[in-house]
Amino acid sequence: MKHKPWHILLIEDDADERADLRHMLIRGSDRQYHFTEAGFGAEALQKFRDQPDGPYDCIILDYFLPDMNGEDVLVALCGGGGSAGVPGSGGHGAV
User: Measured between alpha carbons, how far is 33 from 16 in angstroms, rounded to an integer?
Assistant: First the structure.
């Protein structure tokens, strides 16, 4: 039985980190994924509000973004009424 691809909003300002996260998910599962990516918090919030490809199944959120921190993004996301899970990531060891 073929599963519907999971739609993931990947919020990470470093393009190499985004690529690594995509590859880890793809290699670690037989499930298919559809990624929507954002490098800034404001961009992510806009994509979350618009959701052009339907609701997100999961959001992967970097804590250290150029325009806002992950906590601020998360608070804004929660205020949007969404129901996706949000694992966090941060490359500075302070999360």
Answer: 18
First-to-last alpha carbon distance for the chain, in angstroms, is 38
CA distances from 67 to 12, 38, 42, 50, 72 (A): 12, 12, 7, 20, 10
Q: What is the pLDDT of residues 56-70, one digit of tens each?
A: 998 999 999 999 999
**pLDDT digit string (tens) for 65-85?**
999 999 899 889 887 555 555
